[in-house]
Structures are given as structure tokens and as C-alpha cells.
Amino acid sequence: MRRILIGEHISEREFSGKYYKKALQARRMMKREMLKLFKDVDAIVSPTVPKIPHNIGEELTPMEMYAYDVLTVPTNICGMCAGVVGCGDINGIPVGLQIQGKPFDDEKILNIMICFEENFNK
């Protein structure tokens, strides 16, 4: 809800789309840089989130809340394809593995995910 309200506030204050245009420029730059990462690899594998979840009811700062997204936001902003597959647990808490690929490499990423699940769950 906080993100929606902040976005709404920015939209109301925007003057002739200047922030939107700057955001699109930043997105294009980020995408160019991310595509360079795939020059010699088919996929990038990383944790889905950088830490295990907090306890229910635990108070978090906005920065702590946004930290959960730090590994998935760049992929989403840049239009890369990605999927998450379970890869075990830490102290009984399920852990996800994010597998990322270039735009339109969905089939390749799904095949990597299937292969991982078939071999990991043996």
C-alpha cells in the first residue's frame, strides 16, 4: 500500500512527464548493462531474497521492507525473464533460487528450472 501511495503522490506532482522520461532513460541504461551480463552465459542464478523472512508482527523499517526486493527488482524493471524454484530450507524456512535470462528466453529458463527441480529433488 505504501508503494502505491508514494507512486500516486509522485504522479500528482509530476510536471509534463519529466520524472517518467527520466525513469525510462534509467531503465534503458539498466537494461543495456544487464544484457551485457548475458554475453557469455545462458542464465544467472541468485537467491530470490537476501535474507530469510521476518517474524509475523515484527516491525520493519521501509528500507528493511524494500530490501526483500533488491534481487528481483532489476530483473523486473529491465524486462528480463526469470523464475523462482525452491532449493531447500534454512531452519525449516523454505528458500528460493531465482533463475534469470534474457528477454524472451522463457523456454530456456523454464527448462533450467525443470532440470534443477528434477535433480535437486532426487
Characteristic terms for this protein:
122 residues; alpha+beta; 48% helix
Describe the overall structure:
By secondary structure, the protein is an alpha+beta fold. It has one domain. The protein has a three-stranded antiparallel beta sheet with strand order 1-3-2. A hairpin with a 2-residue loop joins strand 2 and strand 3. The model has no long low-confidence stretch (mean pLDDT 87).
Short description:
It is built from five helices and three strands; from the N terminus they run ααβααββα. It is an alpha+beta fold and 122 residues long.
Distance between the termini: 41 Å
Q: Rg, please?
A: 17 Å
Strand adjacency order, main sheet: 1-3-2
What series of H and E elements makes up the topology? HHEHHEEH
List how many beta strands DSSP finds: 3
List the helices and strands and how they pair.
Blueprint: H1 2-13, H2 18-37, E1 44-47, H3 62-67, H4 73-78, E2 81-90, E3 93-101, H5 106-120
Antiparallel strand pairs: 1-3, 2-3
